[in-house]
Write a structure and sequence with these properties.
CATH superfamily of the largest domain: FAD-linked oxidase, cap domain/gating helix
CATH class of the largest domain: Alpha Beta
Largest sheet: 7 strands, antiparallel
CATH topology of the largest domain: Vanillyl-alcohol Oxidase, Chain A, domain 3
Distance between the termini: 25 Å
Oligomer: single chain
Strand content: 15-25%
Number of domains: 4
CATH architecture of the largest domain: 3-Layer(aba) Sandwich
Strand order of the largest sheet: 13-10-12-11-15-16-14
Helix content: 25-40%
Length: 461
């Protein structure tokens, strides 16, 4: 509980209507999309200007109050779960697109802007913002930057960090730090923008973001390839990349996920398929025609029983919308769901697919596997009932084995979901004690009182 006098001070800074202390309101900000216990904060605030945001940060630091920044709460690793005695700052009122510069192809946005809104606004002006996390329709750009979010187009176009030209952020004293620029090149000082991307709100509080935009592709073609084994589908992924073809998207779905998504969306997916690939190539029309033909040949050579081009834009959009519904479709099957994002080098995707299949059998678990196979980022999704303690114990064992296998294959703990509270304790396995110690020193230097999203990325001393 935050003292009444301090609540009044926060109300003076942001307005009484933007201070939330009712139990039901605080419950809203007590959890995110990770399977972790909810933790209600002591107070939630919604600043409406950058000046208010900076003053809130400074006051939290002065009072030693833990501070968690929250966008839409779609985080899948517990990154938005606050401390019980702390403050949640909600960025939904900081939702202005400040500039779309067509001549120099960049956007300036506040952290509360929804990803889809920037995409639509840029496209209407003949520009393209590629990063498209599965939560694109609701997740905020501040959250995307904090988590270095990826998405379906990551294979060809990269992830959020590849589009951050610069940003402003508040340090713990509420001072506005400026880094990067509106220019294509910038070699001025330390790359603090790069440091902030993926830092999960542990090093500073993002105020404004400069994002690179690019010309949209002139043409695209989507293909659906059906396979009678997961091995054939995963080998096809490796074969397409080995042929030096880089599709805009190259998505994998196993049979369980296909059936679940089709029941949820009715998109006309091939429910008898053991696995399928959703592939889209884009670019110059001649290049698209050539690459689509080559991809189709590779799929058939690798054993695809059917390769079906989308007959029109409407069918393409219907298929991709169905793919984006995989998480909610699987989540409705059982009371609990664990969605992971183990990522391996692309050549190791077949090995990871086999491992996940064997892992499900070993632990007697239901795992639906889908994801961005073209960049090695799979999303094995375990559906179960957390109330069954024995089953939950098997889930925890399976997840730890999955992390170990990803690292063994030369991969990483997280491709796009971040570490949050769920993976922090495993970080030393990937980076080693010296790297972890350096990260702790960095955190201590930038956040001496440890108020910024405590316990995320690096555990407390």
């Amino acid at each position: 509980m935050i003292a009444p006098a301090l609540q009044n001070e926060f109300a003076r800074l942001v307005g009484r209507e933007n201070v939330f202390d009712d139990a039901s309101d605080l419950l809203t900000y007590s959890y995110d999309a990770a399977l972790l216990p909810a933790q209600s904060p002591g107070l939630a605030l919604r600043p409406g200007t950058l000046e208010e945001l900076g003053r809130v940060v400074a006051l939290c630091n002065q009072e030693g109050l833990p501070l968690t920044i929250r966008g839409a709460g779609t985080n899948l690793s517990g990154g938005a779960i606050p401390e019980g005695k702390g403050v949640v700052v909600v960025t939904t009122a900081l939702n202005r697109i400040l500039e779309i510069n067509q001549a120099d192809m960049y956007a300036v946005v506040q952290p509360g802007v929804i990803n889809q809104r920037l995409f639509d606004t840029a496209l209407a002006q003949g520009l393209f913002y590629p990063p498209d996390p599965g939560s694109q329709a609701v997740s905020t750009l501040g959250g995307n930057v904090a988590e270095n979010s990826g998405g379906l187009r990551g294979l060809k176009y990269g992830v959020t960090r590849d589009y951050v030209m610069g940003l402003n952020f508040f340090d713990t004293e509420g001072q506005l730090v400026k880094t990067g620029s509106r220019t294509v090149k910038c070699a001025t000082g330390y790359n603090l923008a790069g440091l902030m991307v993926g830092s999960e709100g542990t090093l500073g509080v993002i105020g404004e973001i400069i994002l690179k935009l690019i010309p949209p592709p002139q043409a695209s073609r989507a293909l659906l390839a059906v396979f009678d084994s997961m091995e054939a589908a995963s080998q096809t992924v490796a074969a397409i990349i080995a042929a030096r073809i880089v599709p805009a998207t190259l998505e994998f779905l196993d049979n369980f996920t296909i059936r679940t998504v089709e029941d949820f969306s009715g998109a006309g997916l091939p429910v008898e398929a053991a696995a399928m690939l959703l592939i889209e190539v884009d670019g110059h029309p001649a290049q698209v025609a050539d690459e689509a033909a080559r991809v189709e040949d590779i799929c058939r050579a690798q054993g695809a029983t059917q390769v079906r081009p989308a007959k029109d834009a409407a069918e393409r959009d219907r298929i991709w919308t169905a793919r984006r519904s995989a998480i909610p479709a699987l989540a409705r099957l059982k009371p609990s769901v664990v969605l992971e994002d183990a990522t391996v080098p692309r050549s190791q995707v077949p090995a990871l697919v086999r491992f996940i299949r064997d892992l499900a059998a070993k632990h007697e678990l239901t795992i639906g596997t889908f994801g961005h196979a073209g960049d090695g980022n799979l999303h094995p999704t375990i559906v179960f009932d957390q109330r069954d303690e024995k089953q939950f114990a098997r889930v925890r064992e399976a997840v730890e084995e999955l992390f170990d296998k990803a690292l063994e294959l030369g991969g990483t703990l997280s491709g796009e979901h971040g570490l949050g509270l769920t993976k922090t304790r495993f970080l030393v396995k990937e980076v080693g004690p010296a790297t972890l110690a350096w990260a702790r020193r960095l955190k201590k230097a930038m956040d001496p009182k440890g108020i910024l999203n405590p316990g995320k990325i690096v555990e407390r001393d």
